[in-house]
Specification:
Blueprint lengths: L5 E7 L12 E8 L4 E2 L6 E4 L20 E3 L4 E11 L8 E10 L4 E8 L3 E21 L6 E22 L5 E9 L5 E13 L4 E2 L1 H6 L1 E3 L6 E5 L4 E7 L4 E7 L3 E5 L6 E9 L2 E9 L1
Parallel strand pairs: 3-6, 13-20
Antiparallel strand pairs: 1-10, 2-10, 4-12, 5-8, 6-7, 7-12, 8-11, 9-10, 9-11, 9-12, 14-15, 15-18, 16-17, 16-19, 19-20
Amino acid sequence: MKTKKFLLSFGILAFGCLSVAAQGTLTGTGVYDNSTVNLSTGTTDWKFFYDEFGGEHSANANNTISDYTVIGGERGFCDSNRTISWSNGTITPSGSFNKGVFNAGIGNGFSFTAPAGDGAYTLKIYLGGWNSIGRLSVHLSNNAAPDYVNDLEFSNGTLSALYTIEYNAKQAGQTITVTWTNTNTNGNVSFQGASYVIHDTSTGVISNTIASTFSLYPNPAIGSVNLKTQSKGNISITDILGKVVLTKTVLENNTTVDISALNTGLYFVNYSSDGNSYSQKLMVK
């Protein structure tokens, strides 16, 4: 059996008149993987790229992962040796399919974008190839870190792979662009889906004491949300792009916050007091 191997991973930094943002981070790992995945489990947002379902995505977020863009060639539909499922879809509430899209020919493939901001993000990309060498290129819109570029060889028929990208743009309202292309004259590359999770939107120290004494309810919430704390402090509510949409000073142990102006979707309530901070997810209906 031919030994499968990863080719050299390297970073690219473009030269010229470039405005560089605060130092961010962008790293990645890729493995051959055909295990079944549920996109709804433990994710902030997700997208299934198979066209029959119109770019299915999470009903609990704001469709923050873009539809894919075809790069050269022609898109085709294919079976995969990986099954993707979900349980909170917008178009189809639940599904389980071993389908994807593919593109053949050297230099051809797909791209999509996802959010980036001032916080730790993990993006998972479910892709594959057939008798090809795929190249994954990942770029932060504010150039806060060198691009991540990695080649992966699919030399033994159809294979599935998983890339895990860890990043922090150190600036709100940014995007990350993912490109997956074929560098070999033979074969094709394929796309199935992607998901991401935001781990923390605060920049301070996460206090275990605050975590044990801070609560918000109801969650999900409509119109208003109640905050319970043991000391005065400040809160900021950010959307999943890291944009601050509401701020308030908390002077009492129990505070009601009006969120009627917020659109339906996922937010983060960031509470800070005495130099410590804590972040908790809030779903607005």
